[in-house]
Design goal:
single chain, mainly alpha, 2 helices, 82% helix
Length: 65
């Protein structure tokens, strides 16, 4: 997964994986593969949100000074 991914793109990929799983479109091998991809996307999204939150807090601290 690329380092400068777009959060929205990752979220869209997650939604597509969930949709395929809910519709039963994946065989067991593809499901395992897609679960691994989903885990990675979730981790990247969580990290992106954490980084963004930190940056916002830093900006707010600077503006308060």
């Amino acid at each position: 997964m690329e380092k400068n991914f777009k959060y929205e793109k990752a979220l869209q990929q997650l939604e597509e994986i969930v949709d395929k799983m809910e519709k039963g479109e994946l065989d067991i091998d593809k499901m395992i593969e897609q679960l691994k991809v989903a885990q990675n996307l979730i981790k990247l999204c969580k990290n992106k949100l954490t980084e963004t939150d930190k940056e916002i807090k830093e900006l707010l601290e600077v503006s308060d000074e």
